[in-house]
Amino acid sequence: MDLKNDDGIAFYRFQSLSGFPQLVHGVTTRHGGGSRPPFDTLNLSRTAGDAPERVADNRRRVLARFPHTKPVYLHQRHGRSVAVLDGPALPPDDHLPGAADAVVTRRPGRLLAILIADCQPVMLFDPVRGAVANIHSGWRGSVANIVGHTVAVMAERFDCRPADLWAGVGPSLGPCCAEFIHYRSEIPEALWSYRRSGHHFDFWALTRDQLLQAGLQPAHIEIGGICTRCRSDLFFSYRAAKRTGRMGAFIGMASGH
After folding, report:
1. Which of the four, 126, 184, 200, 222, has the lowest number of CB atoms within 10 Å?
2. 197: pLDDT confidence band, cut at 50, 70 and 90?
3. Is there a cis peptide before residue 38, judged by omega within 30 degrees of 0?
4. d(CA 228, CA 172)
5. Residue 101 DSSP SS3
6. Average pLDDT, stretch 183-202?
7. What stretches of the chain adopt beta strand conformation (E)?
């Protein structure tokens, strides 16, 4: 991933996805906004406890860097439901109704948003069918294989071929810090092979394997490899500070392409 500064707001962008001119995407850091501690400063979550007016201003600052798009947020619940945004109408208040942790669309001008603070943001793009997806994959989503489920939805609804998909896994809890003391009751035994030293798990490796099992090509998968807890100076981290803000991961196709 590359770090780009856009007039005071920094975005991490995937090298592979940056090669598609019709695509806009990026993952914010915690810097560049107006929120006060412990949400300092670019908190994008309305439900973390931050002042609503500051969240609204932070969102405006970020969205100004994505012209020709309209945001679509989810009510994330750590499940594996996938929302399909296929009609011309935008959701009320920029939020899709109901709970979902992934969203897919083929409509240009829709900026799919995921809010994260340790969970994996996983972006998918099909340059052949012109389809994008954004996925919120915490440990529960990883156990439920939400990424594989999202690939299946893209194939079913948009006739996407998994081999055509490109994927980017953004900053999130790394194997250095993904500790699960009670993993025997939380994580299925079939996934214990991803346990590293002690009680730590490598969910980056799990996500990569799930994408491969779903049919993606190895060369089409980019893992950011940046741990949010290790870099809590740069990112919000729920593991580092329970009361904290949320970054945003955004992907969409700009209208006019």
Report:
1. 184
2. confident
3. yes
4. 5
5. coil
6. 96
7. 2-6, 9-13, 23-28, 70-75, 82-85, 95-99, 102-105, 110-116, 120-126, 131-137, 166-169, 221-223, 247-253
If you average pLDDT over every residue of the chain, what do you get?
96
Task: Check whether 69 has a pLDDT greater than 70.
Answer: yes
Whose tokens are 């071929």? That residue is 161
**Proportion of the chain in helix, strand, coil states, percent, rounded to 5:** 25, 30, 45
Statement: the pTM of the whole predicted model exceeds 0.85: yes
pLDDT tens digit sequence for 15-41: 999 999 999 999 999 999 999 999 999
Q: Sheet harboring 131-137: ordered strands across?
A: 82-85, 102-105, 131-137, 120-126, 166-169, 221-223
* All domains of the chain in start order, with CATH: 2-253 (3.60.140.10)
**41 cis-preceded (ω within 30 degrees of 0):** yes
Residue 245, both tokens: 């803000």
How far is the C-alpha of 26 from the C-alpha of 44, rounded, in Å? Answer: 14
